[in-house]
Design a protein that fits this description.
Helix 9 links the parallel strand 4 (208-211) and strand 5. The chain has helices at 5-8, 14-24, 30-45, 50-64, 70-115, 120-129, 154-167, 190-203, 218-238, 252-256, 260-271, 282-293, 298-304, 309-323, 330-346; strands at residues 138-144, 173-177, 180-186, 208-211, 244-246. It has 15 helices and five strands. It is 62% helix and 7% strand. By secondary structure, the chain is α+β, with helices and mostly antiparallel strands.
Length: 353
Amino acid sequence: MTEREPAEEYLEGYAEILAGVCATRRRLTREEREALGALGERAAEAGIGLRALVRAHLSAARRVRPGLSQAGAEHLLSAVEQALDAFAEGHERAQHLAVRQEEAARREFIDDLLHGRSGLGRLAERAERFGLLLSHAHAVAVAQGPEPYSDGYAVTRTVESSLVARFGNRRILLTTKDGRLICVAPADEPEVLAHFAKQAYAATDGGQVAIGRAHPGPGGVVHSYEEALNALALAARMDLTDPVLHAADLLVYPVLTRDRQAMAELVGTVLGPLRQARGGAKPLLETLTAYFDTGCVTAQAARRLSLSVRAMTYRLDRIHRLTGADPGDPVQRYTLQTAVIGARLLGWPDQPL
């Protein structure tokens, strides 16, 4: 049989070992087991499946049997069992080593891909091995939850199974980095990252997912990944609780903080007077935040803060008196809202400006 032919190459000395063991009805020696294990390793490295190898061993044993005495023939099955056990142990050892080497190569590639530490040409060549065409544009989604996740975790397997079941092999890379789930997908398939975000949010029990913008080329993955990470960091500073964040929707915040000194001056000048209020600036800053987050609807903002509308109106009037800026006036509202955003970004009033 053609399937047996390559397997026969890895039976060197097997028949002689069986004959010697059956002649004295002994167990295999350590040297014999090591020799068979080495053959198993070589067979695994050559890509020969264990099923074909077992068939070849059993066929060889049948050819040995006619030359054995009756007592030796009765011991043949035990000898074959020992020999196959040693051979399979070597085969499995080589397989495990190959898996570990593959995992190490994949992890090294992912680290280089997400941090741009390798030459772009070489990175693109390696990417094809893992199903990515870096000549195309890609976008990256990053999910984090209440605990860190790694490859092989139940959360990771759940999300991966869902992606494979829905999209099959569409040049998607799912991995983990620094305790977060990461999905790299082609830019022309936004439904992949949308599905990843939905599944990751559910699997992480209410975690948060950020999706970077699509960028072309090998460096585009790094750029999109950094945008997603920055979006998560921004959400933590701004107390943004949306389950899915799109970096494209948050571009205004880096612009506002590009000149930190100017923003600090704006916050100090506009909101600094709130420190004079009883209880400090924080309650009134929270009032402005709720007011702007609800579209300047007083009743809705009051409900968010568990206040009466009357109490909410009183606070807004107090802010007007202290700052000189009226939250209800469109022009003055813009200045106040920009200052409030700056305060959240800079951590004021908890952090000094």
